[in-house]
Every structure is written in structure tokens, then in C-alpha cells.
Amino acid sequence: MTFFRKTFSIRPNTHGYLFRRNRFERLLEPDVYRMFDFFSELNLVVLPTTPRLLTVTNQEVLTKDNIALRFSYFIEYRIIEGEKFLARFNSFENFGPLFEAEQVLHSLSQVSLRKLIGELESENLNGARGDVLSSVPDELQKQSAQYGLEITRLLLRDITFPKNIQDLFAKQLETKVRARADLENARTAVAAARALKNASELMRDDDNIRFVQLLETVTKIAEKGKHTFVIGDVNGFGASRKD
Questions:
Q1: 13 in Cβ contact with 34 (< 8 Å)
Q2: Considering the domain 52-161 in this protein, what is its CATH number?
Q3: Could you tell me the pTM of the whole model?
Q4: Sheet strands (E) in 63-171
Q5: Are 23 and 83 in contact (CB under 8 A)?
Q6: What is the pLDDT along the chain (243 residues), one digit of tens a residue?
Q7: Which of 7, 47, 48, 107 is the most exposed place for a label (fewest CB within 10 A)?
Q8: Contact assessment for residue 101 and residue 86, using Cβ atoms and an 8 Å cutoff
């Protein structure tokens, strides 16, 4: 009897879909199953229950302002309805249903994201590339659900602008940095001028500061040679010098 027995091993994070005479019979949870198959009528398709990652590269698109660019992105998806999934794809081809499913996701997402990026201007796209695919478009999610799939995340991998556009963005960034630096320098100059004005007003009205200024002037003149100073009106800080 062991000659007619088949063993099916369903690994963790997968589900087994048992077919008898090419018709779906039942779902198998992770485990090891031993079944009799006298007429070799049983077949098993194993599908993952965990999310999978698909990479789509070098997609060409025109932005709203007619700038041609290339972009690449990741699709994270999972199978949410195994029976619907197997009904839409050929389960027993050499490449398996996952290969066909990813081809469908590639095409559906390509059309959807080209439309999305085509509605943006290149400058906005370059400045907010992290927000472009922050959520999955509803229409794309509905189309994927028809195949028993759910897209859990879309991640923008990179955007490549033409060389002349990259140079323009670089110059624009340089201009913004220079403008910020000039503004900061202007603020510093205004603050310094305000401080000098306040100091001059303070010195003009304070006799002690004026006297200190007089002493500093006398000291500087004395450093240049031998001089005789005659102090007149001390209260008025009058002074004369004799060489």
C-alpha cells in the first residue's frame, strides 16, 4: 500500500492547495500529510503567506512640464485569496503562478504610477520624492484584488533626470544656499550696526566713558614718542599737548 501513498510537506509561512483530478479540493495548513493516491490524481500547489518584494526598474515617464525621466520602485505584495489567485493563473506551468502574478503587478503598477508622476511637475517631484508613493493608489489596489493580491507598500527606489535638468537643479540649490547665507550675513550686519548705535548713544551721554576715551587717546599718543600733556579743564575733559 505504501506504493500508492504520497507525502506532502507544507512549510511554515505557506499554504498548500490540494487538487484532485485538476480540481481544487482543500486547503492544507503547514504540516506533513500522507495520502493515498491510487490513480495519481493528486497535485499540490504551495503559495507563500508572507509579503514578497518585486523590483521594477528603468521606467520612462513624462512629467506635467514635459521632462523625460526614468524611475525605479519596489512593490511589496501578498496573496490574500489563494483560491482566486490560482483561478486567475496557470498553477502548473514551469515558472509557476507567482511569476505570472508578478508580471501582472509589473504592468498594472507601471500604468498607474506613470499616470501619477505624469500629473506632477519635475521641480515638485524632485523636491518631494519621498511623498510620491506614500500610499497605494486606490485604483491599483482594486485591480490587484481581482487577482487575489494586495499591495502593502510602494517604495520609490530612485529617480533619474536628464543631465541638463540635474545641472539646473544643482544651480537652483546653489542659489538658494547663497541666498540663505547672504540673508544671514545681512542679519548679522544689522545686529552689529544696532549694537554700535546703542553704544555710541551710551558713550555720548556718559561722562565717565568720555573720560576713559580721553585717557585711551592720550595713551596712544604717548606711545609714539616723548610728549608733554597739559590738562586743563578736567571736568570738561579739555587737554592740550606740547611736543
A1: no
A2: 3.30.479.30
A3: 0.64
A4: 68-79, 149-160
A5: no
A6: 556 788 999 999 999 999 999 899 999 999 999 998 888 899 999 999 999 999 998 888 888 888 788 888 999 999 999 999 999 988 777 677 899 999 999 999 998 888 888 888 877 776 666 677 778 899 999 999 999 999 999 988 888 776 666 566 556 656 776 777 777 777 777 777 776 666 666 666 666 666 666 667 767 776 766 666 666 555 554 555 445
A7: 7
A8: no
The size of the chain, in residues, is 243
Burial of 1-28, coded b for 16+ CB within 10 Å and e otherwise, reads: eeeeeeebebeeeebbbbbeeeeeeeeb
Query: Cα separation of 149 and 3, whole Å?
Result: 38
| Alpha-carbon gap, residue 52 to 79, rounded angstroms | 9
Map out the domains of the chain as residue ranges: 2-48, 52-161, 163-204, 206-243
Cell representation of residue 140: 491599483
**Most distant CA atoms of the chain, gap in Å:** 133
Question: CA 33 to CA 160: how far, in whole Å?
Answer: 51
Which of 72, 81, 79 lies closest to 98, judged by CA?
79
What is the SS3 string spanning 142-172?
HHHHCCCEEEEEEEEEEEECCHHHHHHHHHH
Contacts of 46 (CB under 8 A, 6+ apart): 10, 11, 14, 15, 16, 17
